[in-house]
Design a protein that fits this description.
- There is one protein chain.
- It contains 9 helices and 11 strands.
- The protein is an alpha/beta fold and about 230 residues long.
- It has one domain (about 5-230): Rossmann fold (3-Layer(aba) Sandwich), CATH 3.40.50.
- The strands form 4 sheets. Strands 5-4-1-6-7 form a 5-stranded parallel beta sheet, with helices on both faces. It has a two-stranded antiparallel sheet with strand order 2-3.
Length: about 230
């Protein structure tokens, strides 16, 4: 059995380009698929947030009009209810040693743009895990958290690494649109990451050594499968 650290946003609001507040949190499908798949495989999954604050679900990710499938919404809501205690009282990330875990998984939702992208504890955990060769697996907007991984000398820890992330086209066509405060794909590319994208809304995973990333919610199953494969190896 492996131990997996799941770093989840604690942000329930994101300031948009026009200055308005947008309700946010983690994306239900992404957290549910990753948590359920990894737990069902027999691994221990520890959910942690900055400061140990409650992990909120993005209300849009449980909206049938957004998800497009009432059965899936019910499925995701039921699983979140089952792990409600974990989400209400997650571990405080700053108290954990990421090298004591075999993998670090970061589901998305727009929440990571609000907190994980600039949190020192997140950056320290990601740098420690990556340097130790642990699996690092962010997906959808989860790769925003990688932006926090700046070394003492100002170097971006994931510069030169191949990865994928929610694309600008996906953001403008089915995300926050023109009101997005910034684009995660652009921010990562500007820091030196090599961003590789596939067709919008298609399952797409990029593996670069111990770094596994997924493009969007549709990639959730493939990301979980890739993490399991690396853990088995």
């Amino acid at each position: 059995m492996s131990r997996i650290l799941m770093i989840v946003t604690a942000a329930d609001s994101l300031t948009l380009a026009d200055g308005s507040a947008h309700p946010t949190g983690f994306w239900a499908e992404e957290l549910v698929v990753a948590h359920r798949t990894l737990s069902a495989a027999g691994h221990e999954v520890v959910v942690a947030t900055p400061g140990g604050r409650r992990a909120p679900v993005d209300p849009g990710s449980l909206d049938v009009a957004v998800v497009g499938d009432a059965g899936k919404v019910d499925e995701f809501a039921a699983y979140l209810s089952d792990i409600e205690a974990v989400l209400e009282q997650p571990a405080d990330l700053s108290t954990l040693d990421a090298t004591q875990f075999d993998a670090v998984v970061l589901p998305g939702g727009h929440g990571p743009m609000a907190d994980l992208a600039g949190d020192p504890a997140v950056g320290a955990a990601l740098i420690a895990a990556d340097d130790a060769g642990r699996v690092v697996a962010p997906f959808c907007h989860g790769p925003a958290a990688l932006l926090s991984a700046t070394r003492w000398n100002g170097e971006f820890a994931f510069a030169g690494r191949r990865l994928t992330v929610f694309t600008n086209e996906e953001e403008t066509s089915g995300g926050l649109g023109v009101n997005a405060p910034w684009f995660v794909a652009d921010a990562l590319a500007e820091r030196g990451a090599v961003v590789e994208s596939a067709a919008p809304w298609s399952s797409h995973v990029v593996r670069d050594g111990n770094l596994v990333s997924g493009q969007n919610p549709q990639s959730s199953d493939a990301v979980a499968a890739a993490v399991l494969e690396l853990l088995a190896a």
